[in-house]
Write a structure and sequence with these properties.
Elements lengths: L3 E2 L5 H11 L13 H13 L3 E7 L5 E9 L4 E9 L3 H15 L4 E7 L3 H9 L3 E2 L3 E7 L11 E3 L5 H11 L7 H6 L4 E8 L2 E9 L5 E8 L3 H15 L5 E6 L6 H6 L2 E12 L1
Parallel strand pairs: 4-5, 11-12
Antiparallel strand pairs: 1-2, 2-3, 3-4, 5-13, 6-13, 7-12, 7-13, 8-9, 9-10, 10-11
Length: 275
């Protein structure tokens, strides 16, 4: 099976295949499950510059569909969807050979819900790195108390260098390092807790004008300060969104977040590897 870019004449074939595959232990995160929405998504991604869609087919009617987020300048790729009506083990191994040959030196990520055991096993077989099983929490807009704390403020240019240094020390080897966050300030809101002009804690939340935004990073060691920082972040986020996500680490105590109002949405694995 050879991989090639999808052409619009192929769309209906792959919609039908995906419709049958996107469930149970093959289900992809955030991928639609009805034919109309699947078709609309594929056509939208085909037209967008930052996505690549590769497909393969064989004479015995085995098909594979791969949807990628592609950041050429950053040399970064994320697998957004992978479906096949053949053996996941065999087809995914062939796909990874294609990727390593086509995109040497790129970083590859994929985020999988815990039910997608087929792809989880595929990623483990190729020795992709993972932080383990993590829990995604969410909280809907509610009438939480208004917090006015003079110690918490939006990150200003004065403290950008301090933020970059602190963030890169705490979160090593992440895609969204300090420099990249500052260079994409239009996509994030960064809130810091200042004391004696030093950053003691901070939060980074997406700002993409979506109905659901995500807290990407939350750094704080002290529980009361952490509660204040989360509350402030939420009240600012609710000015433009109705729901907020927060990813917690494996084995992290969730009772603290439940007290604030967060609920479990899903459990996921994030895998990383260099091509």
């Amino acid at each position: 099976m050879m991989y090639r870019k999808l052409i619009t004449n192929d769309v209906d074939i792959y919609v039908k295949m995906i419709l049958n595959e996107n469930s149970g232990n093959h289900r992809m995160r955030y991928f639609p499950t009805d034919a109309i929405s699947i078709r609309e998504r594929i056509l939208q991604k085909v037209e967008a510059n930052k996505y690549l869609i590769y497909v393969s087919n064989s004479e015995d009617m085995l098909y594979s569909y791969v949807e990628l987020l592609f950041e050429k300048e950053e040399k970064y790729i994320q697998i957004l969807a992978y479906f096949t009506n053949g053996s996941y083990t065999i087809t995914f191994e062939m796909f990874m050979k294609f990727m390593k040959k086509s995109f040497p030196g790129f970083t590859l990520d994929v985020v999988l819900i815990d039910q997608n055991t087929e792809l989880i096993q595929c990623m483990k077989r190729i020795n992709a790195e993972t932080d383990g099983l993590e829990t995604m929490l969410h909280i809907a807009h509610h009438s939480n108390e208004f917090l006015s704390d003079s110690n918490i403020t939006s990150l200003s240019k004065v403290h950008e260098e301090d933020f970059i240094k602190l963030h890169n020390e705490i979160y090593k080897n992440v895609y969204w390092n300090g420099e990249r966050l500052i260079n994409h300030k239009d996509k994030f809101n960064i809130f810091i807790y200042l004391e004696n002009d030093q950053i003691l804690a901070y939060s980074v939340i997406s700002h993409l004008n979506r109905i659901e935004e995500e807290i990407y990073f939350l750094y704080c060691d002290e529980s009361n300060m952490k509660r204040q920082l989360i509350t402030y972040t939420l009240q600012e986020a609710y000015k433009s969104t109705t729901s907020v996500l927060l990813l917690t680490e494996e084995n992290e105590d969730l009772s603290f977040y439940r007290e604030i109002g967060f609920k479990v949405k899903e459990k996921i694995y994030t895998f990383h590897m260099n091509l």
